[in-house]
What does this fold into?
Amino acid sequence: MESTHQFIGRIKNTAFILVIAVGFCFTNESYAQQSKHALFLGNSYTYYFDLPGLTANIALSAGDTLIAFSSAPGGYTLANHLNNATSMSYIGAGQWDFFVLQEQSQMPAFPLAQVEVETFPFATQLNDSILAHSPCAETVFYMTWGREEGDQQNCANWPPVCTYEGMDDLLRERYMMMAEMNDAIVSPVGAVRRFVREQHPEIQLYNADGSHPSAEGAYLAAMCFYTTFFRKSPLNTNYSYTIAASTAEIIINAVHDMVYLQPNDWYVGAYDPQASGSVEWVAENEFLLVDSSTNASEVLYAVDGNDYNPLLSDSILLSITSPGEHTISLIASNCGISDTTSITFDVVSSIEALSLENQIQIAPNPTKNYARISIPETCIKPQVSIINATGKTIVSADRISNHMFTIDCSTWPAGMYIVVIQDRNITMHQTMMVE
It folds into this structure.
């Protein structure tokens, strides 16, 4: 394990306050300039090559601002940060956009029973404290990597970590587990390193100790964090670092393909608000707007683009009398992020309703065995019910897709039956005789 007396053991408490450069022009709204605040709680893997500052410089090259602080004593564990005055004072300051949590480099790869005692609880405690002070913050787990030759220090007692691949597999698994447990996201540095290591073995990602990152490894990590924080393509960055341009290009393309193009793999955006809803006909010209949005602290609705109003419950009854097509728009928002959806539906006039009713055909009628009900093609989501002479519904079918409904009447008592067809805000009736 990393020694606490290494020179990198000094607490790194640095603020990077950057000014957005003038002259950037983005035609795509998703590339608008952004400003984010991030706190890195880690150890030497965060301290080496000043990962927060390197990430900030990459962001600046793309026209974005990252104000980053870090607490990164060498060899530190998540449990150590809970007892570190500097780390906890940063958490208590609040107003953060991102909290990066990095466990000591070997611990997450230990046997699961040990990790469940020595790592997982402290990840949750830190996450809970973070959200208590910064409710809109996202916790980001810093997925680290297997050592170049595996964890030889613990190999004899725990063979799965004897190789790079074995250790790396476990680290990836455990960081993903921590993210899942805490509704957090992952910066998949370890996963991208593995891809580059396998596809471009000529790139040395390790420091001479076979554990810490080289300049190339640090650049890769910072590129992952930039892409994770800002959700932008790393192809738009142009920070000139101390590595070869050809190597930087390989790393940027790897991050683009694995992080930017596959955000769902790392839960990026998984907890954003999602607007969703439906409109159900109730009676006459009354419609029920049902909100099914997720991860939203506020939902607004508007009918036909008119004023937006807050939706204060899961549903609201709306009266819409004018015939024709109508649109209800929903905006679900939380912590400055919003999502919009629209629901379009028709309100049928009384004249159109009468015309549709006259188009309903039942054949044969009267019938003894089978009857086929033909529903007008202009009906959108027709529902068919058949009611007997006592008022009991004996047949019910929803959303008839082919506008044709066949029923077996061979066992029915002779008499009159009412065929009821419901579509949108109209109810249509036809009489059917069974002999």
Remarks:
- Confidence is low (pLDDT under 50) at residues 1-30.
- The chain has three domains: 7-266, 277-347, 350-434.
